[in-house]
Design a protein that fits this description.
about 180 residues; Ribosomal Protein S5, domain 2; 2 domains; four-stranded antiparallel β-sheet; alpha+beta; three-stranded antiparallel β-sheet; Alpha-Beta Plaits
């Protein structure tokens, strides 16, 4: 996982330190949403241009994975692979490692702070369960104060739900 360019490059350096006798440490990273990356970079580390970093990045993009860095470390074994062989080797290694990578899907959510009567708690819990919303906290006072996160694709439905039950949203924020 790579949360920033600095973290990605630090990981490359840690791999270099772990395998100092390897000839090449080719890499690529993609940060943020893979459909519109905040940052992406690649490096052939001495391999012929476009035969290592670009194939690694292409696989990452094709698999639609963000916040990731892949480093492929290669020792020279005495056989020259040629440009096509290098592309296949680096892309294949990347495909193998990403196939085994446990993925976590990030879905944009909005946070709400709510205030409502006790009778509204059970309908809220039921709605949340049915619509992938998450109750972060519930505090009981004269009324209930709750914090909820709602998937962005459910925001319109949630706003209608709140209006139908006269639940007051004290705060709304992206999250």
């Amino acid at each position: 996982m790579a949360a920033s360019r600095e973290a990605a490059l630090a990981f490359v350096e840690s791999v270099r330190a772990d395998y100092p006798d390897a000839r090449h440490h080719c890499w690529a990273y993609l940060l943020g949403n893979p459909a519109s990356a905040a940052s992406a970079a690649m490096n052939d580390d001495g391999e012929p241009g476009g035969t290592a970093g670009k194939p690694i990045l292409n696989v990452i993009q094709h698999k639609r994975i963000g916040d990731v860095i892949v480093v492929v470390t290669r020792y020279f074994g005495g056989i020259k692979l040629g440009a096509g062989g290098l592309v296949r080797a680096y892309a294949g290694a990347t495909q193998q490692v990403l196939a085994d990578l446990p993925l976590l899907e990030h879905r944009p959510r909005r946070r709400y702070r709510l205030r409502f009567d006790f009778a509204r708690e059970q309908p809220l819990r039921h709605w949340a369960e049915q619509h992938r919303a998450e109750l972060l906290s519930i505090d009981y006072h004269q009324q209930i104060d709750a914090r909820v996160t709602v998937p962005e694709d459910q925001i319109d439905a949630f706003e209608r739900f709140l209006g139908a039950l006269d639940i007051v949203a004290l705060e709304r924020e992206a999250g």
